[in-house]
Structure formats: C-alpha cells, structure tokens
Amino acid sequence: MDSTVLLVMDVQESIVGRFADTSGYLHRLSHAIAAARSAGVPVVYVTVGFRPGHPEISPRNKTFATIAGSGAFAEGDPASRIHPAIAPEPGDLVVTKRRVSAFAGSDLEVLLRGLGAGTLVLAGIATSGVVLSTVRQAVDLDYRVVVLADACIDSDPEVHRVLTEKVFPRQADVRAVSEWTADLSARRHDAVIVRPVGTVLGPRTQPTDDHWGDVAAVIRLDPAFGADSVAGLADFSHLEVVYQFHLVDEDKIVPGARHPRNNPDWPAVGIFAQRGKNRPNRLGVSRCSLVRVDGADLHVLGLDAIDGTPVLDIKPYLREFGPRGEVRQPPWAGELMSEYF
C-alpha cells in the first residue's frame, strides 16, 4: 500500500513569532505529530532557508527579495530554527526549501518516492502560503492530499476560512486534527506498518513481462542502514528480495480469480494461485544474483523490479530453504515463465 507522510511546514521560530497566541495551535500540531509517530507515519519537517548571502534569491522575486535584504533565514540564523514545541525527534526527517511550496528548491519529491508516499497530510504556516502552494503542486504530482485545517494558521482568518472551507476541498480532504488522529488510532489495530529499507535503481521503468534474466540493477539501501547491516552479505551468491508493486492502483487489485496475464487461453485461478502484481498487498518476492556489495549499493542481476521500486526486505538465499521433494505446477505456469528470465 502507498504510505502516508505528514508534512510539517514552515513552523519556524521567526514565523511562529508573527502570531500573538499560538499555544493552542502548537498543542494541536504537537498532538498530530505524536499520533503520526505512534502510528509509524513518517514525519517530514519542511523549512525555508538559504545559504549565507541568500544567493538563491533573485531581486525579481517580490516576495523573497525583502528576505534577502533582511538577512533572515540564512544558515545558522537562530530565528529560522524549527519551533521547540514541535521539534524533530530521532527518525524524523527535515527538508529545506527555497521558495513558497514545499517542493520548490528542495529534495522533497525524491524523499517522498523513497518513502513510497501516496498520501500527504499537510500542516503549517501559513494557510495562504506554503499550504496553498504545496496543495496545488502535490495534486499536480498525483498525490492524495489531506489538509489538517486546525493545524494550519494564517494572519488573515477570513482567508484561512475560505481556503479550508471552499478552495482546498476541491482537491483535498480537509480534516480536523482530532478526526485524523482518531482514524490513525483505529487503523493501528488492523494495519501492519512497513517502511522501505531501500529502492531499486534500474534501466526498466515500466512493469513489462519477460526477459529479466540479464537485467542489471542496484538496490540502494536507505541511509538509516550502515555498512554493518550488510556485513557478510557478499559471501552469498543470491538474494531473496521482498518489494512492493508501487505502481498498482488500489482499484486494480484483484481479490478473487483472474486469468494470469489476462490471457484467456490460461485458466482463471485465484490470486493466491498465481504471482500477478495486482494482489491484495501488492507484494513481490523474487530471487536474484548478487553481483557485488558496494557500500549501501547492492548490485544485482535478474531482479524483476522496475526503477523506483520500494524494497521492503532483503535476505540471503540459502539452498536449505529451497523446496524439499518434487516440485509440481500446472502446464500454464511453465508456459507463462518460458521467457520470463
């Protein structure tokens, strides 16, 4: 399943300081952040910042030219720090942007791909600034968007009301923090939260069938995993890789029977009697050759996963885990796999 990510945007000391009383706001936002952490939802802080001297700001930019003249939001500026009431904790992520939208001048989109994000939950200051710009761009990038209305504030309450009640609902779900956190709590009892341990980098970008045997690719581990996580792995010749078919839409999942590859010449069999990608949890399991280990990069051959695929687990293949006894399969399975590798 696509993951949900909470974006906490522009809640920096100098920005919060523009508002007379933010205690209630910061309390609600802190509650949303704590609920996200408890539910395993990644929390990404987005801040605005610039190099010393503000070389990223053009004098043509009416909004940011004033900032350049004031020296604000430069690296090391204490006033640009994330407000201590909602400060990041270990495991949280921080992105620096250069303009209004959370995507502008930042590596947010790359980070979200690595996290397997499909839904973005937005909170921050101001509703008419970073929230509005990020909603527009996120929707254009085909993310599902949720705006936490009472986790956003604006210097103009009427503008905030119009945006959250009339504008945002056209493209996003607008919810209160209490509603969203209640749903998170309910889902924790029936959901399994997994985070990718790495990402596939490969030449194939579309999930086409067949001819995977000679495809070389790299599994790039998440920075959270150091060299010790793959110590000894190079002694093995093959890997077992668990990954997600991340391009399969939820409405394309088949819970019952289907013809493998939609080929009517093959019998309709249950989704658990085939290896099709349109399966309930969209999980793929594959074995491939391990060519070499290069730091956080695992070079592999014959991995049937496309570029950008989130990798959920990696194990060395042990021959003792191979099937015991005679392997039995129907004729259509052999026909399907005849040119797969």
| Total tally of structural domains | 2
Q: Pairing-aware structural class of the strands and helices?
A: alpha/beta
What separation lies between the terminal Cα atoms?
27 Å
| Rg result | 24 Å
Percentage beta strand: 15-25%
Count of individual beta strands:
14
- 3D shape: elongated
Count of helical segments?
A: 8
Element-by-element helix/strand order: EHHEHEHEHEHEHEEEEEEEEH
State the CATH class of the largest domain: Alpha Beta
Mean pLDDT: 93
Q: What percent of the residues sit in helical stretches (DSSP H or I)? A: 10-25%
- Main sheet makeup: 6 strands, parallel
Polypeptide structure, described:
With 341 residues, the chain is an alpha/beta fold. The protein folds into 2 domains: 3-187, 3-Layer(aba) Sandwich (Rossmann fold); 198-336, Beta Barrel (Elongation Factor Tu (Ef-tu), domain 3). It is 23% helix and 25% strand. It is built from 8 helices and 14 strands. The protein has helices spanning 13-16, 23-38, 62-70, 108-115, 127-140, 157-167, 177-187, 331-336, and strands spanning 3-9, 43-48, 93-97, 117-125, 144-153, 173-175, 198-201, 216-221, 238-244, 257-258, 269-270, 283-294, 297-301, 310-316. Strands 3-2-1-4-5-6 form a 6-stranded parallel beta sheet, sandwiched between helices. It has a 6-stranded antiparallel beta barrel with strand order 7-8-13-12-9-14. 31% of the residues are buried.
